[in-house]
């Protein structure tokens, strides 16, 4: 058995109930008094329950959205599944609505605009889950996306999407991946099978679609984060995408679903 000692040097965080440095150099674990501990989670899960800069689970619109589709009294798996489909199909996937400002990456920004690319949509799923007491974080990977269009490929000058975002939800003690990016309408127009989610198995893109065509390849894992790693993303985009600086100036200048429905997607 490992003895836990309250750190004598570091103050407890007023919201998380944890040492600000989590683990002290003397390798003692900082724990909060019992009245500060959440009965619904372990200390390690608390950073994934608290509101973040972009995973703004305390925003009124996010809380209202979460309560519209689920209740905190439900089992975590039911909450996760309900919110997954609400985010996936309630907000259009739009790679042209590419706003890398802090405001543009917020979960609440998706609700306000009715659309978003993969990262803020994942942030919305994570934020709404946290709002109902389900620990959630964000996962990222570089993917080779075959569901693109000539216009989008020309803009990016590659079919590799760095820092593709998805959510990870803590259900029955296990982190489960959920990818709410592509809405049902887009998938139907593109002839791609939509990603389902049951709260048990990871919901990640398949290498091939229902017709045997290449769909999505995961080429590099970027890790898991409590919030959007904006600085890391900007650094990677500046290195990988020569025309990146022009993307945000042209944010929203395109209709990806129209390009897909007209047969331009490949």
Structural class given helices, strands, pairing?
alpha+beta
Element order, helices and strands?
A: HHEHEHEHEEHEHHH
In angstroms, what is the radius of gyration? 19 Å
Residues in β-strands, percent: 15-25%
Q: pLDDT below 50 for ≥5 consecutive residues: which ranges?
A: 1-44
Helix content: 25-40%
The backbone outline, from C-alpha atoms, is globular
How far the N terminus sits from the C terminus, by CA atoms, comes to: 56 Å
Which strands sit side by side, in order, in the main sheet? 5-4-3-6
The number of helical runs is 9
Largest sheet: 4 strands, antiparallel
Chain-averaged pLDDT:
79
Number of strands: 6
Quick summary of this structure?
The chain is an alpha+beta fold and 266 residues long.
Can you describe this structure?
There is one protein chain. A four-stranded antiparallel sheet has the order 5-4-3-6. Helix 1 (60-69) crosses helix 4 (118-131) and helix 2 packs antiparallel against helix 4 (118-131). Helix 3 (107-113) links the parallel strand 1 (92-93) and strand 2. The N and C termini lie far apart (56 Å). Mean pLDDT is 79; it is low at 1-44. It is globular. It has helices at 60-69, 76-90, 107-113, 118-131, 150-156, 184-190, 230-240, 244-247, 256-261; strands spanning 92-93, 115-116, 136-145, 160-171, 174-178, 216-225. The protein is of the alpha+beta class.
């Amino acid at each position: 058995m490992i003895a836990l000692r309250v750190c004598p040097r570091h103050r407890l965080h007023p919201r998380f109930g944890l040492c600000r440095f989590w683990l002290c150099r003397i390798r003692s674990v900082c724990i909060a008094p019992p009245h500060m501990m959440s009965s619904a989670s372990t200390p390690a899960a608390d950073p994934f329950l608290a509101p973040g800069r972009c995973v703004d689970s305390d925003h009124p619109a996010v809380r209202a959205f979460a309560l519209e589709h689920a209740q905190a009294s439900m089992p975590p798996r039911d909450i996760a599944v309900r919110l997954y489909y609400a985010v996936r199909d309630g907000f259009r996937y739009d790679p042209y609505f590419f706003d890398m400002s802090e405001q543009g990456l917020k979960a609440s920004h998706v609700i306000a605009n009715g659309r978003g690319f993969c990262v803020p949509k994942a942030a919305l799923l994570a934020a709404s889950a946290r709002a109902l007491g389900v620990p959630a974080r964000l996962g990222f990977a570089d993917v080779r996306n075959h569901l693109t269009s000539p216009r989008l490929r020309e803009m990016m000058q590659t079919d590799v999407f760095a820092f593709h975002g998805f959510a990870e939800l803590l259900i029955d003690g296990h982190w489960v991946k959920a990818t709410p990016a592509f809405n049902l309408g887009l998938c139907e127009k593109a002839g791609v099978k939509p990603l389902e989610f049951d709260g048990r198995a990871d919901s990640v893109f398949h290498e091939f679609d229902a017709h045997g065509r290449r769909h999505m390849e995961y080429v590099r894992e970027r890790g898991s984060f409590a919030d959007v790693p904006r600085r890391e993303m900007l650094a990677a985009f500046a290195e990988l995408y020569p025309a990146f600086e022009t993307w945000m100036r042209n944010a929203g200048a395109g209709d990806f679903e129209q390009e897909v429905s007209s047969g331009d997607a490949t």
